[in-house]
Amino acid sequence: MTRKFCVSCGKAEKELISGLCSECFNREKVKVSVDRKVKGMVCRNCFSIYYKRWNSFSGSLDEATVEAAFVATENNIYVENIKEPTTGIEALEVISTSPRDYLVTLNIRVKDEKQNIERSLDVKVPVKLSICPTCQRSVSRYYEAIVQLRGLEKKSPDEKEKIRAAMEKAILSQNDLNTFISELKKIRGGYDFYVGSAKAARKSVNILRVKYGGFLKESSKLFGMGKNGKELYRITYLLRLPEFSIGNIIENMGKLYQITGLKGNLVSLFDLKERRSSGTSLAKIEKNKIVAEKKDYIKAIITEVRNDEVQLLDMQEYKTFYLHLNIALKIGNEVNTIKLNDTYYLLKTEEEDKHGH
Ligand SMILES: [Zn+2]
Ligand SMILES: [Zn+2]
Fold this sequence. Notes:
Bound molecules: zinc ion
Oligomer: single chain
Distance between the termini: 105 Å
Mean pLDDT: 89
């Protein structure tokens, strides 16, 4: 019996491969690599996978992402010096690096059972979300949610436009797939936004509700079946803004209140006579009459302070008038007032704002 020695390490072995023991051959000659340009592509709308052409896929977005990394990789693995390799690929990790980019870590294991050779390699394959030509044609009509913005009947054109722009900005700034507005309809008392992403629609409606207050109603409607027989719903978010806005003066049980804050269902009020702040719910004061708005404000200058009597100069009519007030006011300061039925009322002053009275 002839003894065979590995030319590299000198180890004696029954069978040598090109003069090397399997260990040395494995280390020195076997090479496994993957084309660096390998990358996958998935349609973000229907989850079709692109490899040479678009192929439909049934499964979740995560599954499609892994599958796209697999198909892009499996035909681009180069193995040197293994006669009959068997290749196994396993997904180790899928991470999202941006709303439209994923990085899939794959483990590639190449084996030759007969020669007792095995090589393992981890590769990171980028997968990009795109839109397939079929979906491209229908994307302009695609939407998951409708945002119905209501309660704008009595707002000024400027205010309406400001609110519309705020809604649009809130939707488009959501870091989500499909955050596009496929249609905007102007209707009486508001707008309908057709939004590609239901999640973006929900978040942006809440942003506006915090900013302007209002009532929110959510409803959903079945509109079809997904690829896996999953029911698909379209969600409608109806946000009805209150008739009044910050700065309006309302009358409640014979008392005048300045609206100083609106957040969701909460309203901050300032009692113009008692000069005290309080909070209430939107529902409680919703039906109250608006008696003045910011455009009705009259600027006035404090010209004299004597005990609890204050003299002010109406800057519109250049007329002085007196108010009985028990608060600290500085001569020369400018304040906002309103005049209702020939009576002046001082609005919440900056000083009162600071001290939270
Ligand atoms: Zn050896
Ligand atoms: Zn598609």
